[in-house]
């Protein structure tokens, strides 16, 4: 038995050769798809029916105005994104049986890693010795310990004592704050001016660093253009936009170049970002609509690399921000509580989630693999990432499902609004708290 989305070895090799960096994280997802579509006795490395798409220069093409989407930093890290290679074991495969593959990823046996712990290990917190892991705290709220198989430890991050994000930077003496990203940062109705994380976090940062506060126009969103009503106010700027994707950092709408003119780069700057939710939504919809898995993976890797390039833009050249720059970004949440049920939200169809994935396990692994790569970006650039995925998981539209990976028990409050993919005021409070914790420590 064959699958249309079975990734051919020769196509995959050609893809890896043309992409900017090795994509070792793709291997376990590919192998998962192969295992699911191979009859007993078939050779998983043999002939296939799938075909790989050519490498993609953009994760999504031009941005749409669609609101349904969701260190000492003054010195470079010395890590060039064009040469860095993930030592990824893939999503939740650490500790499973299987040999080392030729891509550097551990080969899956196709057992869906149901025995792994929360950090993707079957033997213990660090995946090798059974020692507690720094990220174990992430999974303590979940009833089904070990069901969310995300492996951050492969990149050896420094986790904050608050367990709300990483702690790679000592963020002090900030003179300017810039918000980049998508509708999560801009804010969306029905949330009001002082309910959105951008405005709430700005108030916190004014107090922390003695900054000139933004006015109320800056805190409000423009419902026609999907941006902050005023881009610059006080010591704050916002170039985030509804529907933005990672190619909007530089390639399309130039969020970075618009918000970082050369005459302001001498200010010690904090950059706050939520970006990637619309990219993830796009690839999820593609997969649900029948796009072969190999093409979905190429598109996912392309947008991850755009995110990587954006963060490197800030930190690679120490002369660009001579007095220092700090970057804190969110990983990507999803509303299914780890179930992969795209239609779990009552209004999912209005947001384009009107079909399920045929291979729901592949979708779940895709989401986790993307977030693992976001962690790698934070580690290689020594910037910081907040755990938005993990803190919203269990507060989505399958929160009441005891079998869900992130089930927190009965009566867990929902942190998403009726659009399915935007935070409600309580969700904005959570995001504010996550960014505050990481910036403060």
Characterise the protein shown here.
With 441 residues, the protein is α/β, with parallel strands linked by helices. The protein has a domain at 176-440: SGNH hydrolase (Rossmann fold), CATH 3.40.50.1110. The protein is built from eleven helices and eight strands. It has helices at residues 9-18, 26-36, 183-186, 197-209, 216-219, 255-259, 277-288, 293-315, 360-381, 388-392, 425-440; strands at residues 176-181, 221-222, 227-228, 232-233, 236-238, 269-274, 325-330, 384-386. The strands form two sheets. Strands 4-5-1-6-7-8 form a six-stranded mixed sheet, sandwiched between helices. A two-stranded antiparallel ribbon has the order 2-3. It is globular and about 50 Å long.
Query: What separation lies between the terminal Cα atoms?
Result: 53 Å
CATH architecture of the domain at 176-440: 3-Layer(aba) Sandwich
> How many beta-strand elements?
8
Which class of secondary structure composition applies to the elements? alpha/beta
For this entry, give a set of tags.
441 residues; 6-stranded mixed beta sheet; 11 helices; 8 strands
Quick overview:
The protein has helices at 9-18, 26-36, 183-186, 197-209, 216-219, 255-259, 277-288, 293-315, 360-381, 388-392, 425-440; strands at residues 176-181, 221-222, 227-228, 232-233, 236-238, 269-274, 325-330, 384-386. By secondary structure, it is an alpha/beta fold.
